[in-house]
Design a protein that fits this description.
This protein is α/β, with parallel strands linked by helices and 304 residues long. It is built from 10 helices and 14 strands.
Length: 304
C-alpha cells in the first residue's frame, strides 16, 4: 500500500527561486525511506509541505489516501514530525510536554503509553525535570517523544541525531526499528549517511529541488558502487608501474589499490593477480572493500 503519494509538487518563492521542481515520489507503508541531499537541496521544504507547515505552489500530496489540503485534519493525525530545530516550552516538565502534545491531537490520555515511550527513549528518569534543565541530546529525544505521543502512522525524522552522542543515538535507532516493525512508515533525512546505509529500505537523492534518484538500497549499492582490492607490497620499490597501465590503480606508499567493476570486466581481478605473478611481485596482505553509500552519494551529487 502506498502511504505517501507526491505528484508534480513544486515550490517557488517571490523572486523566482524554485525550492522544489515537479517532485514525484511514492513511499510504501511500513518502509524506512532515507531522503538524502546536500544543504539547501529541498529536503526540509518537502517535509514541511507534507506535514502541512508550508503550501506547495503546485502539485498534490496524499497521506494514507487523504489529501493534505482538503483532508488536513486526517493527514495531520497520521503524521509525527521531528524537525531539525529544537522548539520546546522550557518551563514544562518532560511528562507534561509529551502528554500535552498527545492531547493537542485529540487523543485520550494514556499514561501507560507515555511511560513506555519515555522509557524507550531513556527519558523516564527525567520525566519530572523541567525542559530547560536538559542537555541538547535530551531535548532532541523529547522532540521525538512528542512526535510519537499521538501514535502516528507516519514519522518524519529530519536530522534526528544532530547533537546526540553515540550511545543515545543507538538507543534512538532501537526505537525506530521497533516502530518500523510495528508498521510505522518512517522518512529519514540525515547527514550521518552511514545511518541511512544501515537502516533504509530505499534511498532517494534530491538535488537543487529535483529527485535525481530513487532506488532500493541494496540495488543502489550493487549497481553504483565500485569495488577495490588493496595489496600490501613486500618490496614496493621494485614494482614496474608501466606494466599495470591497463588497470585502474593507485599507489599509496607500500600499497597498490585496484578499483574495478566486475560488471564491465568480469575477469579483471583474475588478470590483475596473474600480472602480479608474472612480474614476480610479493605481497603480505590482501584486503577488499566496496563503496560506501556516502561515496556513492557524493559521486551522484557531483555528477548532477
Amino acid at each position: 500500500m502506498v502511504m505517501i503519494s507526491i505528484s508534480n509538487v513544486s515550490k517557488s518563492y517571490k523572486g523566482g527561486f524554485e525550492a522544489l521542481k515537479k517532485v514525484n515520489l511514492r513511499i510504501q507503508q511500513g518502509e524506512l525511506f532515507a531522503l538524502l541531499g546536500p544543504n539547501g537541496a529541498g529536503k526540509t521544504t518537502l517535509i514541511s509541505i507534507i506535514c502541512g507547515l508550508s503550501r506547495a505552489t503546485s502539485g498534490a500530496i496524499q497521506v494514507g489516501g487523504f489529501d493534505i489540503v482538503s483532508d488536513y485534519r486526517q493527514t495531520r493525525q497520521l503524521i509525527g514530525l521531528v524537525p531539525q530545530e529544537i522548539s520546546l516550552s522550557i518551563f514544562e516538565t518532560v511528562w507534561d510536554a509529551v502528554s500535552f502534545t498527545r492531547g493537542l491531537f485529540g487523543c485520550s490520555p494514556n499514561p501507560d503509553y507515555i511511560e513506555r515511550l519515555l522509557k524507550d527513549l531513556a527519558l523516564w528518569d527525567k520525566k519530572d525535570n523541567l525542559l530547560m534543565t536538559l542537555s541538547g541530546g535530551m531535548k532532541r529525544r523529547v522532540m521525538i517523544a512528542k512526535a510519537l505521543s499521538h501514535e502516528p502512522k507516519v514519522l518524519f525524522l529530519d536530522e534526528p541525531t544532530a547533537g546526540v552522542d553515540v550511545e543515545l543515538r543507538q538507543e534512538m535507532w532501537k526505537v525506530v526499528h521497533r516502530l518500523r516493525e510495528s508498521g510505522v512508515t518512517i522518512i529519514l533525512t540525515t547527514h550521518y549517511i552511514e545511518e541511512a546505509e544501515d537502516m533504509a529500505d530505499r534511498i532517494g537523492v534530491i538535488h537543487h529541488g529535483e529527485i535525481i534518484l530513487v532506488e532500493e538500497k541494496d540495488k543502489l549499492m550493487k549497481n553504483l558502487g565500485t569495488k577495490q582490492i588493496e595489496i600490501c607490497l613486500q618490496e614496493p620499490d621494485t614494482v614496474d608501474v608501466e606494466a599495470f597501465k591497463d588497470f585502474e590503480l593507485k599507489f599509496d606508499k607500500s600499497e597498490m589499490i585496484l578499483t574495478y567493476d566486475p560488471r564491465e570486466k568480469p575477469t579483471e581481478v583474475e588478470d590483475f593477480f596473474a600480472k602480479l605473478t608474472q612480474q614476480g611481485i610479493s605481497y603480505t596482505d590482501v584486503k577488499s572493500r566496496h563503496s560506501s553509500l556516502e561515496e556513492i552519494f557524493v559521486k551522484l551529487v557531483r555528477d548532477a
